[in-house]
Design a protein that fits this description.
Blueprint (H helix, E strand, L loop, with lengths): L17 E5 L20 E5 L19 E5 L3 H7 L13 H4 L4 E7 L6 E6 L7 E3 L4
Length: about 140
């Protein structure tokens, strides 16, 4: 998936504040997010992409990103992003890319389009708060 429609353009989407990627069943990975491409992005939601292996490299360039929501994603992906693996006591291999994001929501549903059965904020603003109710 490419972030810029014209490969010669370095501007990307300068006014984009919110981005939702949903139900891309075949998506396994993204192209790199180039620095400055979406520099005003505040909310980024990725849901129902069951084959996604990792977040796009360059997400660390999104300095204004405040909310990242990952819904119904592979468990391996959320493990890569967590601050601390409870067994190994070390951060996931991709945590460094998202450590600047205050709110990182991981949501799960029992059935597709059903109610959210659990959510967890693993961002630094959430201090690993967990809940098992609907938001």
């Amino acid at each position: 998936m490419s972030w810029v429609s014209d490969a010669r353009s370095k501007e990307g989407f300068p006014k984009l504040r919110s981005l939702v990627i949903r139900e891309l069943n075949e998506l396994e990975e993204f192209d790199e997010i180039q620095e400055g491409t979406m520099h005003r992005l505040y909310d980024f939601t990725i849901v129902e992409c069951p084959n996604l292996k990792k977040l796009p490299s360059g997400i660390q360039h999104l300095k204004f990103l405040h909310n990242l929501e990952l819904g119904d994603m592979p468990e391996d992906l959320s493990k890569r992003l967590r601050n601390c693996d409870s067994e190994a006591r070390e951060g996931g291999e991709d945590h460094w890319m998202v450590q600047h994001i205050p709110n990182i929501w991981i949501t799960k549903r029992e059935i597709l389009d059903g109610p959210i059965i659990s959510f967890e904020n693993i961002g630094h603003a959430g201090h690993k708060n967990k809940a098992n109710d609907q938001r």
